[in-house]
């Protein structure tokens, strides 16, 4: 549809100022344009009707203030006749039609004009739009130029001096300019490459000494920002002669920054796992070792490269290959797998380890992260503990045998001695002989009490670790009081008020506590008729009960009030072994209670035993004891 002289009819729909600017812009381009202008879209539609079956022009530039919808209606009318006809929209600051609306409607290009020089860019766009259609025969280089400039990379063509001949929009944006403004400017990239690389590599391209030149560099943009570019240069030949250089570059600043952060993160991760005292392993699903920490290298004696060439089967001495593979294949997807095995070091040492494994993502794939803790010390302690428990069990068995001998054989013989001493005493008339018989009887009775104490000590040693349970206090205490009255009929034993019906936390050896204290009170006296007073009261909080056993004996000096409860400690002038009070304290402490001795008034001692009451058994009405 071009005119006979080769010019291209161009319809400009705009006010006079814009129409004049567009006309000036296209003037002097390689393509000759014959410009026709109309003021409104309505007038343009009338112009279209007057054209008959065709459209009467080869390109449209529309810029109508406040009439964006009319412009789109005119576009629709044009497209109904000529779907491929170039239709460009030029927009200033007051234009209502947005780029997305225009492009969605089917315009060929949308150009925003901010200042008069931008109309030169509009002229370039018009020429390219016309060249890209088959409306008229144009130079094919304009088509290639259009494609070139729309590449989404920093594509350009340099002349032999390193100046821009053509530049893509992508590259022009990098410089903050338009492609037209960039043409004829010297390339910062070419200058930087020439400075960084010896032997003027750009000239070597021009001289056809090399086929290409590529690399990365830091480039400071005109606004002072430092960016990282990757580039590739290649000679551009026309008719066998190198006339310039084709260059493709890409801004990889953000990518390199991500790579640096990723590298640093990996380094920090490696520093973290290398700083762990445990060995850390990254294992592939097929059992190959992908990564290890420094502790693994040091502990097993292999180099890192050696370990990374091995599988878990090469170092695991505690599991078969099938067992190890099964553990890996059966890893829970959202949990942790913990097990024990043995790692074999390069020098043959076998190291017991506890392994905690879980699935993680490593370099884009699912792997097993295992942390192996050296449990050599723990295994040694466990072995020693097992041996101690075995020895303790043996000692308990031997103690049970000894206890059986003491309780049955020795005690039975002593009871026979006591019985015959009683019979002998009835038949002896001589006072001196009767005195000897009485000594035998007393010593035999005392020996019987010692066998009871020995039995209780043995039972206490065997029952250590058994949990306490509620034990009724009244029947246990009354039974031991009755036993004392039978053993020491000359003693005066009284109880201050009735023993409360309360349960305390103890075991079946609670009676031994009171028996030893009562026996101790009866024996440690210089009189023939010892006086023993027993009382029971509760504490202020009601969660404990105190049993007091007072005597009128020789008393305990202050400096020995703690020592008498120690093992093998005997009171002054005592005929015992020193085990009785030691047994009392040991038992009371296992019950979570306490025992102490105070002075009695005017003479003697008061032994107090404080016991915990069982839950629900506390009696808040009981009086509170006084401990000095």
From TrEMBL:
Signal peptide: none annotated. InterPro entries: CheY-like_superfamily, HATPase_C_sf, HATPase_dom, His_kinase_dom, HisK_dim/P_dom, HisK_dim/P_sf, PAC, PAS. Keywords: Coiled coil, Kinase, Phosphoprotein, Transferase. SUPFAM superfamilies: ATPase domain of HSP90 chaperone/DNA topoisomerase II/histidine kinase, CheY-like, Homodimeric domain of signal transducing histidine kinase, PYP-like sensor domain (PAS domain). Residues 213-264, 337-387 form the PAC domain. The keyword Phosphoprotein applies. PROSITE patterns: HIS_KIN (PS50109), PAC (PS50113), PAS (PS50112), RESPONSE_REGULATORY (PS50110). Residues 140-196, 265-309 form the PAS domain. The keyword Phosphoprotein applies. Residues 9-128 form the Response regulatory domain. GO terms for molecular function: protein histidine kinase activity. Pfam families: HATPase_c, HisKA, PAS_4, PAS_9. It is an enzyme of class 2 (transferase). It catalyses: ATP + protein L-histidine = ADP + protein N-phospho-L-histidine. PANTHER family: PAC DOMAIN-CONTAINING PROTEIN, PHYTOCHROME-LIKE PROTEIN CPH1. This is histidine kinase.
């Amino acid at each position: 549809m071009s005119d006979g002289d080769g010019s291209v009819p161009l319809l400009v729909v705009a006010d006079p100022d814009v129409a004049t600017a567009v006309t000036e812009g296209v003037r002097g381009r390689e393509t000759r344009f014959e410009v026709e202008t109309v003021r409104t879209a309505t007038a343009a539609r009338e112009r279209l009707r007057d054209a008959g079956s065709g459209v009467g022009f080869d390109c449209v530039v529309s810029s109508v203030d406040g009439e964006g919808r009319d412009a789109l209606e005119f576009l629709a009318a044009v497209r109904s006749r000529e779907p491929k006809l170039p239709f460009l929209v030029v927009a200033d600051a007051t234009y209502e039609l947005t780029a997305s609306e225009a492009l969605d409607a089917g315009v060929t290009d949308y150009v925003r004009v901010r200042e008069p020089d931008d109309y030169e860019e509009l002229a370039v766009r018009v020429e390219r739009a016309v060249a890209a259609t088959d409306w008229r025969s144009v130079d094919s280089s304009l088509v290639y130029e259009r494609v070139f400039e729309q590449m989404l990379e920093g594509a350009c063509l340099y002349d032999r001096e390193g100046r821009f001949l053509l530049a893509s929009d992508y590259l022009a944006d990098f410089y903050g300019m338009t492609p037209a403004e960039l043409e004829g400017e010297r390339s910062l990239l070419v200058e930087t490459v020439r400075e960084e690389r010896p032997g003027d590599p750009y000239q070597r391209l021009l001289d056809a000494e090399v086929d290409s030149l590529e690399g990365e560099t830091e480039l400071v943009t005109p606004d002072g920002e430092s960016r990282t570019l990757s580039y590739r240069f290649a000679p551009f030949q026309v008719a066998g002669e190198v006339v310039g250089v084709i260059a493709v570059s890409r801004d990889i600043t953000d990518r390199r920054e991500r790579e640096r952060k990723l590298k640093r993160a990996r380094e920090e991760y490696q520093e973290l796992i290398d700083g762990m005292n445990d060995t850390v392993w990254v294992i592939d699903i097929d059992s190959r070792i992908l990564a290890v920490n420094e502790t693994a290298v040091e502990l097993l004696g292999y180099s890192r490269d050696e370990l990374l060439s091995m599988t878990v089967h090469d170092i695991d001495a505690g599991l078969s290959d099938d067992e190890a593979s099964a553990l890996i294949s059966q890893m829970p997807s959202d949990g942790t797998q913990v097990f024990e095995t043995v790692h074999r070091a390069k020098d043959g040492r076998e190291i017991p380890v506890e392994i905690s494994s879980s699935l993680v993502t490593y370099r884009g794939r699912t792997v097993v992260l295992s942390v192996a803790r050296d449990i050599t010390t723990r295994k040694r302690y466990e072995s020693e503990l097992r041996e101690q428990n075995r020895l303790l069990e043996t000692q308990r068995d031997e103690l049970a045998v000894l206890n059986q001998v003491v309780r049955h054989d020795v005690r039975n013989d002593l009871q026979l001695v006591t019985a015959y001493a009683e019979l002998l005493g009835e038949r002896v008339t001589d006072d001196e002989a009767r005195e000897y018989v009485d000594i035998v009887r007393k010593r035999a009775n005392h020996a019987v009490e010692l066998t009871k104490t020995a039995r209780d000590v043995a039972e206490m040693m065997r029952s250590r670790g058994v949990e306490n349970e509620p034990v009724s206090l009244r029947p246990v205490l009354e039974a031991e009081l009755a036993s004392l009255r039978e053993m020491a009929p000359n003693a005066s034993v009284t109880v201050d008020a009735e023993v409360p019906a309360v349960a305390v936390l103890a075991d079946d050896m609670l009676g031994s506590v009171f028996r030893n204290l009562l026996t101790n009170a009866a024996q440690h006296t210089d009189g023939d008729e010892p006086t023993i007073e027993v009382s029971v009261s509760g504490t202020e909080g009601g969660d404990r009960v105190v049993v007091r056993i007072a005597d009128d004996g020789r008393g305990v000096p202050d400096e020995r009030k703690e020592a008498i409860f120690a093992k093998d400690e005997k009171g002054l002038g005592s005929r015992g072994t020193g085990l009785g009070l030691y047994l009392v304290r040991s038992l009371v402490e296992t019950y979570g209670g306490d025992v102490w001795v105070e002075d009695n008034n005017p003479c003697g001692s008061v032994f107090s035993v404080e016991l915990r009451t069982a839950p629900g058994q506390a009696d808040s009405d009981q009086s509170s004891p006084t401990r000095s």
